[in-house]
Amino acid sequence: MNRQSTRHIMMMEPAAFYANPQTFETNQYQDMAPADIDAIHAGAVREFRAFRDTLIEHGIIVTTALGTRGCPDDIFVNNWVSTHAGQKMVLYPMLAENRRIERRPELLQILNGFYDIAIDLSHYENKGKFLESTGSLCQDRVNKIAYTALSPRTDPDLAALWCETMDFRMVPFNTRNHAGKPVYHTDVMMWIGTSVAGICTECILPEDRDRVLSSLGNTHDIIDISMDQMRSFLGNALEVRGEDDSRNLVMSGSAWRSLSESQKDRILKHVDRIVHADIPTIERYGGGSARCMLLEMF
């Protein structure tokens, strides 16, 4: 039986974190950094380490790698690679040129020692087509369904090719965020656990909404996320296993504080705990949050 979540994740400690100017056009959740980028980097490293330590304290196995200069977004390690049951991995094409170098040879060599490449899509960068891993494809691994919010970073043809190769059913849809633009990544507006899922219904275009909710509602208890909660990164959460196979829903402190008590109660019917850590510098200047920092190792 397919499992939705894993106990082992990989995280990337940044070597030079700052607001990436190459992603600013498509990421409306990202602020441009002030002149003192050294202070921004130092804050991000502190937040990263505290987040990592919180996960370890909850029995989650964390492998940490060190980022490299020239890659301001490599802290978001889930965007260029994904791993899957059967010791398979997939490599992806990235929109921002300075994100493409995150596929470092030494990291690929390590991963190749454990995983075989099921499909390498990275060459589609040369054709102007992009698909940014679990950022683009929110996977219901148990039922083999990939929810796909289309955007400049998520090409529908590549998503369909991924689904055909990985034997998933594709549920594509269109979104509009608070700025009237497509949500840049699917994992900003939704997450999927084993039996519960969170989704910002409001941002899905009306003509797609019923189709998405009907599919997701057939398999999961749906927690509706408001547009304001999405801006607090409540859509950017991940179910991770801990000791004794416990289920943890991992999110940022801002996402946790945006939850209503009734939402917490419903989520805790499906997971053992909600694990959260404050990462305000990373969220503000990176435009991503907790889930983006976690590469699942299956």
Give a structural overview:
The protein contains eleven helices and 15 strands. A hairpin with a 3-residue loop joins strand 3 and strand 4. The chain is an alpha/beta fold and 298 residues long. The strands form five sheets. The chain has a three-stranded mixed beta sheet, with helices on one face. Strands 3-4-5 form a three-stranded mixed beta sheet, with helices on one face. Helix 1 crosses helix 11.
Mean residue pLDDT: 96
| Total count of strands | 15
**The CATH architecture:** 5-stranded Propeller
Strand percentage: 15-25%
Fourth-tier CATH superfamily name = L-arginine/glycine Amidinotransferase, Chain A
The overall number of domains is: 1
Structural class: alpha/beta
The H/E string reads EHEEEHHEHEEHEHEEHEHEEHHEHE
CA-to-CA gap between the ends? 13 Å
- Provide the helix percentage: 25-40%
Q: What integer value in Å does the Rg equal? A: 17 Å
Individual helix count: 11
**Strands across the major sheet, in which order?**
2-1-15
**Could you describe the largest sheet, including whether it forms a barrel?**
3 strands, mixed
CATH fold call: L-arginine/glycine Amidinotransferase, Chain A
Give the CA-based shape.
Answer: globular
Low-confidence segments: none
Strand-helix topology:
Layout (H helix, E strand, L loop, with lengths): L7 E6 L23 H21 L3 E6 L14 E4 L3 E4 L5 H4 L4 H8 L3 E5 L12 H4 E4 L4 E5 L6 H11 L2 E5 L12 H4 E3 L3 E4 L6 H12 L3 E4 L2 H5 L6 E4 L5 E6 H6 L2 H7 L5 E5 L2 H7 L8 E2 L2
Parallel strand pairs: 1-2, 4-5, 7-8, 10-11, 13-14
Antiparallel strand pairs: 1-15, 3-4, 6-7, 9-10, 12-13
Helix pairs in contact: 1-11
